[in-house]
Amino acid sequence: MDRIVLPVIISFFISAVLSRFLIPELRKLKMRQTERTDGVKSHLKKAGTPTMGGIAFVLSITVTSLFYIRSSPKIVPVLLMTLGFSLIGFLDDYLKVVLKSSDGLKAWQKMLLQLVLTAVFAFYMVRYSGIPLTLLVPWSGGHYLNIGRGAVPLLFIAVIGTVNGVNFTDGLDGLASSVTIVTAGFFTAASLLQNGNIEPVTCAAAGALMGFLLYNAYPAKVFMGDTGSLALGGFVAASAYMLQMPIYILIVGLIYLVEVISVMLQVLYFKKTGGKRLFKMAPIHHHFELSGWSETRVVTSFTVVTILLCMAALLRFR
What we know:
Layout: H1 5-28, H2 54-66, H3 75-98, H4 107-127, E1 135-136, E2 144-145, H5 151-169, H6 175-193, H7 199-216, H8 225-242, H9 249-252, H10 254-272, H11 284-290, H12 295-313
């Protein structure tokens, strides 16, 4: 149990303490959130809230995981993907918040960095991990799907899609944190059930996010920024691949998927209809807000949906 309970407790306290001391420092450095004036009007009051708070839980996950690397070497690629995507997010946040460079990294720059990091992970998975790129099929009782040469392109799609899905999910107080705590819990259970040996890092992620949620829940005292949201996307995608479970992202990460698809559909519909909107606003959590839902109701509903999906995903597991 020390591989499950202790990582949660250690990372929780590190994250909670770091967040407590980081928030005033971020405020002093003027690392503050800006809000769109054409967005949800109730969000204008969030302007000035410190951002880049993801530093706290990323450091917490890292420090906690270091205690278990020797006994659980499979956590290393998960940790490196978490850190790698966090660094991309940090660079984007730094350009936007500190250097006041409009939108931070250009879209092509951010995508290029994500592709490079994903390529490194793909190379590791193929050449050194010893883990096949076969896919565990949900509710099949342990059947694996081999898609041959399509496995590597699928890896790129799964990783990039998950990372950006989590990034879009991070738009309400506590939303990305709450949903990912549940997802981390699912991957912990999956790792235990199939001896995946990555539970120290999944538990560390859950604990770190709980500590961060003390300050990120509504009304948020700090936001995670791209520093945190991209890191969480890397964590989810890498955990899934280390357990041969990328298909499960479509189930347990359905909220991430719906968020990113809602943005894609909104843009496509807008262009095809000459300015009409499919949703009141995208990502879709803003659509629910503009439909009269409170911010806390959206967060609670999305989290409950994720809990139910994670429970469903465990049915007939293996």
